[in-house]
Each structure stands twice: as C-alpha cells, then as structure tokens.
C-alpha cells in the first residue's frame, strides 16, 4: 500500500461519508446507486434510490417489472437510457446468472450500461475486491495530484490517469479506498473552490504546489451544442390531459410526453404554427386551407399574428396558453371563431398557471362583458 492510498483510507474512515443508504449493501443495491450517481449528485439520488429499492427490493422483482414501471420511478433523474439498461441488465442477471452478480470484471462490463468504472465500483464496494473507479471525481483528484496539464479527455491523459489509479490500489481495504477517493473529489477536491488545507494528500499535490488546482483538469474545446426547438401542445378535455408515448429513438424513447407537432403527425393530425416570423402570404394560405377543411387540423397561433381580419369558423374551440395584456387582442382573437358562419357552440379554454393568471383572465372576460353590453345598448338606441 503506497502513501497516497493509505492517507485516503485513513481520511475516509474518519472524515468520509459512511452513512449513505447503499453502503455495505448487496451488489444489486451498489449497482443501482452507481448507475443513478452517473452525472447526478448524491443529494439528488438519495430519494430516488430509496423509492426504487422500496419498489424493487431485489433484482428478481426488478427483472419481472415492466419498462414503464422502471421509467416512471426514474422520471426526473434524466439520462433515461440508464433506466432502460438497468431493466435489461436485471433480466440478464436473473436469466444468465441465476440472480447473482458476476464477481469478475470481464463479465460485468459485458452487461448493458456497466462500463469499466461502474464494474470497478461494484467489485470494490460490494465484493471488497480490487476495482478501479474512474468517475469524474476520481479523475479530478488524480489529475490535480499528478499536476496533469493535458486535457483530461484525450487518450494520452486517460491512459496516464488509469495507470496511476491501478498502481495506487491498496492490497486490502478496497471498499474504504474506493469510497474515500470518490468522497475526496466530491467533498474537498471540488471543481471550484477546493478545500486544499483539509486534503489528506495535499502535501504532495503538484497542482497545489503550482497554484493551478482550479485550472485542472483541462478539457478539449467542446463542439457547440446543437439546439432543438420543440413546440409542446397542452391538450385537455374533461379534466384530462393528453399524453403520447414517444416511440421514436432518442433520449425520450418510450417516455410519456406532451404531444408536439411531430408526434401529432404520426397520428395523422396535421398542425401549423403561426407567429410573427411567418409571412403574410403564408398566413393567408394556411388560414384558407384550414377554413376549407384541408390541412392543417390544428393551428397554434401567436395572438397578435391572427387577431384581425381572419375567419376561422371551422374551429369552435380556442385554448389560451397564457393571458395577454391587451383586451383588444384577447377579444379579437376569440372573435376569429365566434362570428358569422359558425355552426357550433364555441368554447374558450384558459390554461391558468397561477392565481395571477386567473385574475387577469377574469378581468379580460369582465371587460368584454361590459363592452358588449355598451355596444348592445347603443344598437338599441340607434334602432
């Protein structure tokens, strides 16, 4: 055992986290916690973990559950492919390993969603066997301790970090060491404002000596993120809200979502969006098609873009996503369907997200009512 691992083990026993709900538990419980902790903080994971284990106390109950049950318990944690892989792996372990986790690295990494670092965590934390963990916290500790100034995500650095991690494995106390180096990265060797004066290995930390601990680890310049615009539709009827299961591939596969334009099109429900960016010619064409019973079947309209001079009596329902500040815009937009030629009873649905919005809608409706009375009064006088 070298001094690096010895100091971390001693620190973990006295200063590390020793009361987490998945510590010193079965391989199944360690595995669930490790998957949940990927890209997610401990404080966020704990309530999800407890609910998950309460529902699926053993791997057999998880394997026998439906994917929909698993996904519902995962809702809010994000990275939903993790949940799908958990379900697949549970079934494989029950079928191929009679419900027992394999205790060797080779078989562990062949299971869906279990990479080298997760396999190392299961080996060391559940079975107290040698296992290298290389999550973000551990990589940061090693990169700073070694003073590695190359980007952490290039192959050369990855090999250097892995080599140091393997060489630093103790001869025993694998659980304490693995938990200790993760705790060190999470509690002291933080990405920002590291608490170096409390670190058990700070004396030999190269980044601290050079005063560059907050600059390490470096990352390659990342590619610009792609943005995707999605227009969700909130469709309600009789106190029920329409949700659609997403059958397409991607991060939201098999999740229940508000319908959007793409989802509705799969059910042959055509939509068009009219806002300020749509040209007057295009608006006229869309309105004409809508009114003559051609596509589209649903119009999503910015109120100011269609508050005047448009007849939309093919529709008899308006859904307001949010109130507007203009009484004229509100009244004129409602009048697009409530006018000569309308053969059906008209309905105006107001989605009220707060008491303030409810109050605004009430003011708008009351003022329209008063204006209508005044106009009717003038008509009587003129007649």
Write a concise synopsis of the structure shown.
With 383 residues, this protein is mainly alpha-helical.
Give a topology summary.
Layout lengths: L2 H13 L11 H10 L5 H14 L3 H5 L3 H8 L6 H16 L8 H4 L7 H12 L8 H11 L8 H13 L6 H15 L17 H5 L25 E2 L2 E2 L2 E2 L10 E2 L3 H6 L4 E4 L5 H12 L6 E4 L15 E4 L6 H8 L12 E4 L4 H28 L1
Parallel strand pairs: 5-6, 7-8
Antiparallel strand pairs: 1-2, 3-4
Helix pairs in contact: 1-11, 2-3, 2-8, 8-11, 9-11
Structure description:
The model has no long low-confidence stretch (mean pLDDT 87). The strands form four sheets. The chain has a two-stranded antiparallel ribbon. A two-stranded antiparallel ribbon has the order 3-4. It has a two-stranded parallel sheet with strand order 5-6. The chain is built from 16 helices and eight strands. The N and C termini lie far apart (103 Å). It is mainly α. It has helices at 3-15, 27-36, 42-55, 59-63, 67-74, 81-96, 105-108, 116-127, 136-146, 155-167, 174-188, 206-210, 261-266, 280-291, 327-334, 355-382; strands at residues 236-237, 240-241, 244-245, 256-257, 271-274, 298-301, 317-320, 347-350. The relative contact order is 0.07.
């Amino acid at each position: 055992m070298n001094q690096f691992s010895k100091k971390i083990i001693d620190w973990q026993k006295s200063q590390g986290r020793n009361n987490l709900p998945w510590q010193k538990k079965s391989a199944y419980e360690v595995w669930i916690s490790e998957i949940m902790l990927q890209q997610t903080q401990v404080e966020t994971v704990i309530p999800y973990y407890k609910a998950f284990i309460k529902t699926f106390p053993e791997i057999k109950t998880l394997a026998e559950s439906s994917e929909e049950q698993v996904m519902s318990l995962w809702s809010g944690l994000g990275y939903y492919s993790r949940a799908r892989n958990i379900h697949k792996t549970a079934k494989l372990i029950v079928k191929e390993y009679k419900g027992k986790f394999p205790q060797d690295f080779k078989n562990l990494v062949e299971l869906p969603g279990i990479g080298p670092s997760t396999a190392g965590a299961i080996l060391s934390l559940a079975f107290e066997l040698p296992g290298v963990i290389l999550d973000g916290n551990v990589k940061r500790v090693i990169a700073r301790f070694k003073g590695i100034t190359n980007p952490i995500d290039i192959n050369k650095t990855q090999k250097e970090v892995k080599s140091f991690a393997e060489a630093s494995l103790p001869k025993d106390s694998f659980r304490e060491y693995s938990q200790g180096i993760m705790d060190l990265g999470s509690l002291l060797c933080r990405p920002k404002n590291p608490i170096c004066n409390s670190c058990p290995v700070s004396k030999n930390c190269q980044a601290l000596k050079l005063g560059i601990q907050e600059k390490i680890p470096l990352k390659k310049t990342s590619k610009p993120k792609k943005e995707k615009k999605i227009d969700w539709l909130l469709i309600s009827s009789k106190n029920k809200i329409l949700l659609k299961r997403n059958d397409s591939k991607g991060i939201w596969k098999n999740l229940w979502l508000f319908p959007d334009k793409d989802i509705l099109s799969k059910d042959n429900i055509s939509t068009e969006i009219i806002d300020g960016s749509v040209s007057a010619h295009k608006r006229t064409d869309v309105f004409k098609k809508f009114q003559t019973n051609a596509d589209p079947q649903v119009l999503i309209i910015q109120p100011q873009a269609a508050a005047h001079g448009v007849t939309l009596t093919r529709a008899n329902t308006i859904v307001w996503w949010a109130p507007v500040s203009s009484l004229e815009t509100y009244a004129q937009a409602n009048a697009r369907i409530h006018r000569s030629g309308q053969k059906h009873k008209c309905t105006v649905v107001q989605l009220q997200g707060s008491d303030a919005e409810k109050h605004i809608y009430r003011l708008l409706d009351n003022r329209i009512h008063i204006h209508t009375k005044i106009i009717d009064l003038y008509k009587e006088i003129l007649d």
